[in-house]
Amino acid sequence: MNSAPHAAELKVLVTRDHIRERVAELAAQITRDYAGQSVVLVGVLKGAAIFLSDLARQIQLDTTFDFISVSSYGGGKQSSGEVRLYKDVDQSMSDKNIILVEDILDTGLTIQFLRRLFLNRAPRSLKIAALLDKKCRRTAPVDGDYVGFVIPDEFVVGYGLDYNERYRNLPDVCILPPGQI
Ligand code: PRP
Fold first, then answer.
1. Is 106 a catalytic residue?
2. DSSP helix/strand/coil, 56
């Protein structure tokens, strides 16, 4: 175990109650936008797993989900700027309403890579859902269609987000102080 702080010592940025309310609003919006249609949620492992599972249970549509695994960060804090595909989806994306589900948009490089990849698969539609958006960090020209919270440039953990694989299970989104990274 390293010297990173105990979860209880971290400052909360977005509470579990605000997350629950906002996820319900996003799900209601998705339910309205795709009324009468089905959607495929594609979660980007690992960070989006918790957001996807909460979102999926609130969407009142014929919904399936799948997962893709890419990495841009390795184990540390800074993006390497390079996106690698580790695991692809298990089903055809052709003529489907795809919603890529991310925990966070940072530089946008990951979602830009995934948008291009999925647009080449002839979906009926393609949209992006992200719980958090660090808009001030964006270098790639991409935006989310369903965004939970625009947040400042802090290193955040919890609700799926990690630091060296820790803290993903925290129910709130918390700030890891710069001295601890
Ligand atoms: C994080 C996050 C996004 C990506 C966002 O993934 O889940 O996929 O970085 O950063 P970007 O906008 O700068 O590309 P990470 O590679 O840390 O993997 P993880 O989800 O397994 O933690």
1. yes
2. helix
